[in-house]
């Protein structure tokens, strides 16, 4: 599938008031359903007590705090982000936490992690990149994961926007233009080509959103 979108179309970096009130905005935009939704999605990750988890786009740290509920003292979470407001919020949230670290790092550039994580998680971030950079992010996840580790993508599902419900069409008028490209791709096929094999999929919001877990092939 070819795309005419460029990096200039990306709105993946959240800044300003949107960043400072991001958690509240998500609650409002989803009609108050977001807290219930995200708790279910994190449960579907199947976090184990000793998991090492790398988060691409850690944001305010809200998702990391939910993952932390499943970890014991042997687990670890490293969250990566580049937005100063987001980084500041997450660092305040986890100041002094013994096994959660927040680092400033782009995820579409080479990362130093090699076969050392059980899970890599990315939430509503991948759709905001051009396909070339999405493949770089997937490659970073593959390298960071141990054999049989999982790359877990929480994002829009695949669907035909022309046939979508009118509220979804409105959302996509406000969304990053690259999201329209994202929903038109077969992500399991893309991930297979990048070295992943076994998949778990959990639909949300009438199937317009999905948690997709892809296992790194041994």
Structural account:
- The chain has 218 residues and is of the alpha/beta class.
- It has one domain: Rossmann fold.
- Helix content is 35%, strand content 24%.
- It contains nine helices and seven strands, in the order H-H-H-E-H-E-H-E-E-H-E-H-H-H-E-E.
- It is globular and about 45 Å long.
- The mean pLDDT is 94.
Task: Give a short overview.
The chain has 218 residues and is α/β, with parallel strands linked by helices.
Helix/strand layout:
Layout: H1 16-20, H2 22-29, H3 34-44, E1 52-56, H4 62-68, E2 76-81, H5 84-93, E3 100-104, E4 117-123, H6 131-144, E5 145-156, H7 166-174, H8 178-182, H9 187-193, E6 196-204, E7 209-216
| Poorly predicted runs of 5 or more residues | none
As a percent range, the share of strand residues is 15-25%
The tally of helices reads: 9
CATH topology: Rossmann fold
In round numbers, the mean pLDDT is 94
Helical/strand content category:
alpha/beta
The shape, in one word, is globular
CATH class: Alpha Beta
Strands, count: 7
Identify the CATH architecture. 3-Layer(aba) Sandwich
Q: Secondary-structure element order, as H and E? A: HHHEHEHEEHEHHHEE
* Widest sheet, order of strands: 3-2-1-4-5-7-6
CATH superfamily: Vaccinia Virus protein VP39
- For the record, the count of structural domains works out to 1
* Rg over CA atoms: 16 Å
C-alpha end-to-end distance: 28 Å
Largest sheet entry: 7 strands, mixed
Classify the helix fraction into a percent range.
25-40%
């Amino acid at each position: 599938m070819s795309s005419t979108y460029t990096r200039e179309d990306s709105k993946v970096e959240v800044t300003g008031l949107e960043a400072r009130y991001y958690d509240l905005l998500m609650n409002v935009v989803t009609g108050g359903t977001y807290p219930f939704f995200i708790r279910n999605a994190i449960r579907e990750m199947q976090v184990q007590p000793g998991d090492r988890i790398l988060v691409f786009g850690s944001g305010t740290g809200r998702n990391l705090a939910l993952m932390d509920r499943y970890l014991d003292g042997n687990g670890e979470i490293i969250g990566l982000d580049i937005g100063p407001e987001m980084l500041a919020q997450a660092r305040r949230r986890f100041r002094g936490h013994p096994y959660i670290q927040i680092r400033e790092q782009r995820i579409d550039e080479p990362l130093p992690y090699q076969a050392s994580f059980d899970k890599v998680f990315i939430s509503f971030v991948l759709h905001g990149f051009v396909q070339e950079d999405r493949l770089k992010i997937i490659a970073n996840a593959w390298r960071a994961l141990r054999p049989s580790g999982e790359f877990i993508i929480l994002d829009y599902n695949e669907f035909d926007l022309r046939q979508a419900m009118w509220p979804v069409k409105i959302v996509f008028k406000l969304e990053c233009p690259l999201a329209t490209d994202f929903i038109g791709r077969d992500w399991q096929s893309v991930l297979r080509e990048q070295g992943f094999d076994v998949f778990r999929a959990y639909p949300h919001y009438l199937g317009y959103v999905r948690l997709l877990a892809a296992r790194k092939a041994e």
